[in-house]
Amino acid sequence: MTIKTNFSLLGLNTFGVAEETAFFTSVSSVAEVQQLIKEEVYQSHPSMMLGGGSNVLFTERYEGLVVQNQIRGRELLQEDEEHVWVKVGAGEVWHDFVLYCIEQNWAGVENMSLIPGSVGAAPIQNIGAYGVELKDVFESLEAVEVESGELKTFHHADCEFGYRDSIFKRWAKGKFIIVNVTFKLNKRPNFNTTYGAIQQTLEEQGVRELSLKAIAEAVIHIRQSKLPDPAEIGNGGSFFKNPVISTALFESLQQDYPQMGGYPAGVGKVKIAAGFLIDQAGWKGYREGNIGVHEKQALVLVNFGGNNGKAIYQLAKKIQASVLEKFGVEIEPEVNII
Fold it and tell me: Is residue 194 part of a domain?
């Protein structure tokens, strides 16, 4: 196993931030993970796993060990008349896995097309888009326990999924390294076109017969029309979570902002769009030197070039304070701040 020192993370994060890590390595198997946690450098320094680098903002040099997960592979475990169970390596690219499912005519992940990142990061964040979340197709995952080196299995209930949340962002954070995820997918699609602009996009594209490919292409079109390509402009996708507020506050805000939409989020709660709040607070299209807020999607903070991680974080805090003052609503980062 090769441990590199003073390693630049420029090519490993979608914000295009050029911070360094004191130590860097990669793993491509369960055995390598189990070997890594015995290494002196791992045991004597803080560490973090890195997938696609799409949900992280580095604001300073990382004085520890960054481990890139490169565990690959897809395995059909079992199937019946209704479902298939497929195990996928944590280092697989999420969107590549979605396209693979569509090719196999396995339904359930098509609405989550083009979400950046890796399969192993998906359950940590409980990723989701257009009315579907990871938890809807999740069966189980395997992870190496850092303390013991043992391979542990986590089933659905064990993960305590919430909105962009799981135990791996709370008490289990840093205690386990996810090595694979098993999904339960449908052989008979149950198309979900009610969320966002999917139905409208399908009509504009002249789609007369729904298919997994048609749904995926509609989602990809919507995302590409609203979100900047990290290869062109540094960004981490949606920077903030959509906040969940009380129904009473939502109804009060709607009196002043009748165009504000909301989705039921439990008894007495409504989920609203953070992008709408940021836009109404005047931040959409804002630019400050080489950082700013994307002109088409206020949820996205962008890096136009240079090592601006700290400045992006400061901008995020200004936006949070502005939204809280104007609406009385707290918005939390979806991106991990390092």
Answer: no
Distance of alpha carbon 50 from alpha carbon 121, whole angstroms: 8
Do 85 and 148 fall into the same domain? yes
> Which two tokens mark 287?
């630019």
**What's the confidence (pLDDT) of residue 117?**
86
Residues 17 and 46 in one domain: yes
Token pair recorded at residue 253: 């805000």
pLDDT digits (tens, 9 = 90+) for 26-53: 999 999 999 999 999 999 999 998 888 8
CATH number, domain with residue 37:
3.30.43.10
Backbone dihedral region for residue 190 (phi beyond 0: left; psi -120 to 50: alpha; all else: beta): beta
How far apart CA 39 and CA 336 sit, in angstroms, is: 26
* 48-103 per-position pLDDT tens digit: 988 888 889 999 999 999 999 999 999 999 999 999 999 999 999 999 999 999 99
Of 186, 207, 222, the domain-final residue: 186
Catalytic residue numbers?
164, 238, 334
- SS3 at position 17: coil
Alpha-carbon gap, residue 214 to 118, rounded angstroms: 23
pTM more than 0.90: no
Total domain count for the chain?
3
